Amino acid sequence: MKQLTNDMDTVNKKLTRSSGHRADFNRHRARANVQLKANKLPALKALLSGHGIRWGIRAERWERMWACRDLIDQVMKDDLTEVHAKRRHPKKNGKKGGYFEEVVFSVADWQAMRDLLDILTPYKYLTRDMEGDKPTGCMVLVKYGQLKASMEERCGNQNMRPIKKSKKIEF
Which domain of life is it from (predicted)? Predict the structure, then answer.
């Protein structure tokens, strides 16, 4: 999972760092948004650039990348095709070619990212609600109860090992 999240961050940085790649990606996104609008579906948001200082920002970047996964796959495959067309023999120094360093995400990788985002979603909402000056002691207890209920529901719906701490703490 760590390698997947690092690859996601690398691809996001490379897509948003270069103005040429960002423009190319935004052109693909604009075409996709026209089709989505015709089908009355929500438009794709632009990718977030920036640093992974806080986990919530990284999760938001991954969420947007997951929404644009078909476009990202297309851009990365185009880059990989270009690399293989230019090069007949593999590099001997061990470096990977191409702008995206030959990173390709499989369907299983995207599904693993979706599973991770599903796990992080309750924490993302909790963090957002608890930021700033508005949280009080009562709010903390209510949000903790909601988080606990979300964890228990998730454990009940899937084949996950039970969370022992949530069973020990009672209101």
Answer: Eukaryota
- The 3-class SS string of 72-121 reads HHHHHHHHHHHHHHHCCCCCCCCCCCCCCCCCCCCHHHHHHHHHHHHHHH
**Mean per-residue pLDDT for 57-67?**
83
Distance CA 12, CA 17 (A): 8
pTM above 0.85, yes or no: no
Separation between Cα atoms, residue 117 and residue 122, nearest integer Å: 9
Domain containing 31 equals: 2-119
Residues 28 and 65 in one domain: yes
Claim to verify: residue 82 and residue 139 sit in the same structural domain: no
Structure tokens at 144: 């903790």
- Count: domains in the chain: 2
What's the alpha-carbon Rg for the chain, to the nearest Å?
20
157 and 115 share one domain: no
Average pLDDT of the segment spanning 21-43: 80
